[in-house]
Amino acid sequence: MAAMVEEAVGRALRRERVFRDRTNPLDAYCDTELRKRYRFSRRGCIYLIHLLRIDLEHPTGRSRALPASLQIFLALAFFASGALLTTVGTMHGISIASTSRAIRRVTKALFRRRNQFIKFPKSERDVLHIQEQFFAVAGFPKVVGVIDCTHVHLHGSKLKPIEHLYVNRKNRHSINVQLICGPDFLISNVVARWPGSTHDSRILQMSRLARKFEQREYKGILLGDSGYPLLEWLMTPVLNPSTDQEKSYNNAHVKTRVKIEMLNGQLKNKFRCLIGHGLAMKPKRACDVINACCILFNISKKLREPDMEDDIQVIDEADDAFHVAEYNIGGQAARSHIINNFFV
């Protein structure tokens, strides 16, 4: 009898496991602290939990699997700070391995919803609405987006044997990311897959977006700096303006295109993993994180998340791009038409 009781007690002790208390940030922090730590308000965090829960919840509770909400907070903490996984994990009482898996799962879940939150205007109604908003900025006609590239650095990534491809003009390893935004700073296009040595114009040339413009599936024009070629659907500044009309054109071009520079700064300021030494992971995973941050940025804009004191409009660091020769006849004609008809 005593042996049976001892065996029962032994089984009970073996079943009893002690786990750390995983505090729910929604209960632990006020709205201000949530935005500071995770870049979303309480309402925004709850929205993300409902949006991604189906992808993140484990079918069973075996091994005390991390709940969807905690996985999301781990990922948001990493995106917001760019801190080491040890730091992010320690903040939430989670191991490095579990933290890494959670960030990866949230990143992939966000990427699956890319087409839901990052859209280029296609319908006539959307195109006209965006063109009117851009025209109100400085009188530049037919604009549906402003384009630029920004570098996200890689730190300690295993890049050999193609390491040289990731060295940009500032002699740092990076991913060169193409971004296009609208007048409300919503990102309408992101291409995050090219190594840092790739020139901005090359990324555009090889993109699906360029093919859609060439095939006239997309209407309107883009504005880009002189690192891009002058095309019928892509207006660049006049390099040596000689008339008042050309100077007025350049002035309107700068005032309108500055929105993409501000967007680059806002994006990196909101998700600090994209600045500083950069992402300490393989290039493919780094590109996925960049896409995830862009999706989260658009979600925050759509939810009209309140700005924080450090969510200032930072102008992105200039990349000293060299000028691309203006050889396109159609582009020259289109620019001349705009200068002569809209900048008297």
Number of domains: 2
Round the mean pLDDT to the nearest integer and report it. 88
Q: Largest beta sheet, briefly?
A: 5 strands, mixed
Distance between the first and last residues' Cα: 104 Å
Q: Report the order of strands and helices.
A: HHHHHHHHHEEEHHEEHHH
Describe this structure in words.
InterPro entries: HARBI1-like, HARBI1_animal, HARBI1_dom. This protein is α/β, with parallel strands linked by helices and 344 residues long. The protein folds into two domains: 26-112, no CATH class; 119-284 and 305-342, no CATH class. The protein has helices at residues 2-15, 25-28, 31-38, 42-56, 68-81, 85-92, 96-111, 114-117, 124-138, 200-205, 208-214, 244-270, 283-302, 329-342, and strands at 143-153, 174-181, 187-195, 221-223, 234-235. A five-stranded mixed beta sheet has the order 3-2-1-4-5. Helix 12 (244-270) packs across helix 14 (329-342). The radius of gyration is 24 Å and the shape is globular.
